[in-house]
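REVIEWER CHECKLIST
Item 1: Sequence provided? yes
Item 2: Single chain? yes
Item 3: Sequence as submitted:
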Amino acid sequence: MKRGLTGSYDISTAGGETCRAFVPASLPPDPPLVFSPELQERLDAALLALGRLDSIGVLLPDTAVFLYSYVRKEAVLSSQIEGTQSSLADLMVYEADGAPGVPLDDVQEVSCYVAALEHGLGLLRGGLPICLRLMNEMHGKLMAHGRGAGKSPGEIRRSQNWIGGARPSRAAFVPPPPQRLAECLSALERFLNDQPQRHTPLVKAALSHVQFETIHPYLDGNGRLGRLLIPLILVNAGILREPLLYLSLHFKTHRETYYELLQTAREQGDWEEWLWFFATAVADSANQAIATARALTELHATDRQRIQVELGRLATSALLVHHALYARPISQIAGICERTTQSPNTVAKMLGKLIELGIVCEITGQKRGRIYSYAGYMEILNRESNQHS
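Item 4: Structure as written out by the authors:
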């Protein structure tokens, strides 16, 4: 349904220029959302996929292991949308105390994304609702290092920003002026906490994502934080036990449509078209996560079997090293020793055996500070990203 403009324009100043800044009306949409049978079917399919994703989290041998890697994969994809060059391997090499193959700022930004998610999750589980305090604290973590450190981490902006274009007058979109942010964010906070009325978690996540991106309350990091809030809303509502759903790959793959529909929701009030896109993104992303989890579980079982058959009496020690790499697929010997309580000599010997089997590879080519990768694991994690790039 095309409701027309979903807000109003204020005259603002940015970069020495006068511009028209968009101030969104409060949610929910008015007139109310219209759920056609086709849209309801699409939302139901997304909810069903989320249910399957949540249940596979229970069936995995170790959900925390999958979560560790999947969160980092999302961090990389979400940061790539903002222009960083860091890969998943770069991030894991950095976390293993190695030197990444890209500028340090890039990897630090991705690492901060992981820290922001973990902090937000901790606040939610400590009883804090999804609110401005939670957003500010997450933003503080998100922008703590790298290029964002000078962009007022954790603070609502005090100046006018704009999106796209070298100058405000040529911007693709100009968010609300700073003096209107308090009322916009207060209204969003109320909507997130079911005031004036309750919406299903999926619809709430979809609508609030557009609203957050429209308000653009920070100097930088709005896109990443906006994407981070989606799984937190679903965890907070009990739809997911762990934040296993990430939409960055879908948004990145359908980037033009994503930005176009955000603008259509603002200018024409077509929230239903956006809901259709969002529900599709959720279903596709959940199904991809399920496929990845299954592939990793199968790889773990297959490789364990090979190790037992081919390494004989050495299998017990080798399996400990294998399991340590399954938990942290890019590691140094010191980290593996810590997780297995085996000596460096034993770990080095077992890594040599796993390299002979083609399960592990050394990725630095150096004599000192060597870093080992669980090759099949990393290939599975990168598979869908490469298919969509």
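Item 5: Key structural point noted by reviewer: The CA atoms of residues 181 and 217 lie 7 Å apart.
Item 6: Recommendation: ____
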